[in-house]
Amino acid sequence: MLCGDEQMENIEGFEKLYTLHEVAELMRLHIETIRAYVRDGRLEAIKPGKSYRVKESTLRAFAGQQMSITTKDEIVSEPRAKKKKAI
Known about the structure:
Elements: H1 4-10, E1 17-19, H2 20-27, H3 31-40, E2 53-55, H4 56-66, E3 68-71, E4 74-76
Antiparallel strand pairs: 1-2, 3-4
């Protein structure tokens, strides 16, 4: 028997939900950065109980603004342009 997020993934019509820790890991950011994004309203999250969850579609939209997604489960940051030193 499945429970929690595993059960929600397998029910048709329900969207995968990520914990803030999972979001931080996927985006390769510190958990406090993700919490600040939620607090500031930059990243929409729901709080169905004691902890926040981020919908997969919300994460993809947010990541699309800042990063490129290579596969469904892997989010990789784009290479940053090198800054030129001032003379």
